[in-house]
């Protein structure tokens, strides 16, 4: 089978092969470790390989030969209605390990299915019914029709926005529920959304610069930029699959739905608990009694100090609520109102105070500062340094130097 090796076809061929390799690696990893996010990312890599395939094959001379061209025009290589929901569900499964596809989620794939059926119907009509290229007599690939490209762009924008909304809700949620939020805030999720924004910006830029999407020779640099972007996603996505944090469903005691109303068919149901402490708590506490608030502050302080809960590196709002015998959402509200900070910052303030007390007592002479931090409940050096400087205005080393000067 002819393949013309030239500068343009070879560059796209390398990205094409790498996309397939990463798709296989992620699929194997996803199956072996039952990781839905890896499987979704594997699917995305495969779709990226298909996305650049027509231009790779075009530069390789396939579309200039009647036998190949006749068949390739019927192939829906550019799955513009399928890529956006796949990326969205990757983000969804990345943030929530308990997430599983349900029947209602299949609606997100309906446009892609309809487009593929449309492509199949055209093939059947031209090749089996009419016997000649009636629908393709203009010699232009339907994947590059203006309506399809614009609709695909709009779909990508909608799902990118939905992914961003979900990540923001997730981030707010974990900082309100966990004392180790930094460990599961998924910096990769932020970079992933940024990479998708780059892809979307590239498409918009090339829409404006050169709207003729069916012209093979005029889109090479767009597809190179696209390939570099998905190559970045594939590498970091594979690395991230090894470093993923805790599943979101362990926080279900603390909240109900995180994703309600983001997109049709995307919702989660809170677990049902019949205990008295699982009563529904409104999002806002109205008419707070200052005396009651002061009592709760004192009680929370006493529990935190006497039980030294902050020394637990994986302390959650549910753990504190259990000690207080109240609903986790109520505990979160008392922390927010009484101490003016989210739960993550609240617990870290106790940890910093513990480290400072030990440093004042000279324990840093017997143990490293990071050792003191880990004993106080911090689970990473970077988090400790950031929180310590935010609290004291000095780095741990600068603070120690100041103490030694006294």
Automatic annotation (TrEMBL):
Coiled coil: none
Keyword Cell division assigned: no
Residues that span the membrane, as ranges: 12-28, 40-59, 71-91, 112-135, 147-167, 188-208, 220-239
InterPro entries found in the cross-reference section: Homeodomain-like_sf, HTH_AraC, HTH_AraC-typ_CS, Tscrpt_reg_AraC-type_HTH
Keyword terms: DNA-binding, Membrane, Transcription, Transcription regulation, Transmembrane, Transmembrane helix
A Pfam family: HTH_18
Domain HTH araC/xylS-type: 298-402
Matching Gene3D superfamilies: Homeodomain-like
Cross-referenced PANTHER family: ARAC-FAMILY TRANSCRIPTIONAL REGULATOR
Record-given protein name: AraC family transcriptional regulator
Organism: Terrimonas ginsenosidimutans
């Amino acid at each position: 089978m002819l393949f013309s090796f030239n500068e343009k076809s070879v560059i796209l061929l390398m990205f094409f092969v790498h996309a397939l390799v990463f798709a296989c690696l992620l699929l194997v990893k996803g199956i072996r470790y039952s990781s839905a996010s890896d499987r979704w990312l594997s699917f995305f890599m495969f779709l990226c390989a298909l996305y650049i395939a027509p231009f790779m094959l075009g530069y390789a001379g396939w579309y200039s030969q009647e036998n190949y061209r006749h068949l390739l025009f019927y192939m829906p290589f550019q799955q513009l209605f399928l890529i956006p929901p796949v990326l969205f569900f990757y983000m969804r499964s990345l943030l929530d390990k308990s997430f599983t596809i349900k029947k209602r989620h299949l609606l997100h794939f309906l446009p892609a299915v309809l487009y593929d059926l449309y492509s199949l119907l055209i093939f059947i009509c031209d090749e089996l019914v009419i016997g000649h290229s009636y629908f393709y007599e203009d010699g232009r690939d339907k994947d590059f029709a203006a309506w399809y490209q614009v609709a695909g762009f709009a779909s990508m924008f909608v799902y990118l926005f939905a992914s961003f909304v979900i990540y923001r809700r997730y981030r707010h949620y974990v900082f309100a529920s966990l004392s180790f939020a930094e460990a599961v805030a998924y910096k990769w999720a932020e970079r992933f959304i940024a990479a998708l924004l780059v892809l979307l910006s590239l498409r918009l830029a090339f829409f404006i610069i050169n709207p003729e999407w069916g012209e093979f020779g005029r889109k090479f640099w767009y597809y190179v930029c696209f390939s570099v972007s998905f190559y970045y996603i594939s590498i970091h996505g594979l690395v991230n699959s090894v470093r993923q944090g805790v599943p979101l469903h362990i926080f279900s005691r603390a909240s109900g739905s995180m994703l309600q109303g983001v997109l049709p068919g995307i919702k989660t149901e809170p677990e049902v608990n019949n205990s008295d402490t699982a009563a529904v708590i409104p999002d806002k506490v109205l008419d707070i009694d200052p005396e009651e608030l002061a009592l709760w502050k004192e009680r929370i302080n006493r529990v935190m100090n006497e039980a030294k809960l902050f020394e637990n590196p994986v302390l959650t709002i549910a753990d504190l609520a259990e000690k207080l015998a109240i609903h986790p959402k109520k505990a979160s509200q008392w922390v927010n109102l009484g101490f003016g900070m989210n739960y993550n910052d609240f617990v870290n303030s106790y940890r910093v105070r513990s480290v400072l007390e030990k440093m004042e007592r000279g324990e840093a002479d017997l143990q490293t500062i990071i050792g003191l931090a880990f004993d106080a409940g911090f689970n990473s050096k970077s988090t400790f340094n950031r929180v310590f400087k935010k609290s004291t205005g000095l780095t741990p080393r600068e603070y120690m130097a100041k103490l030694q000067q006294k």
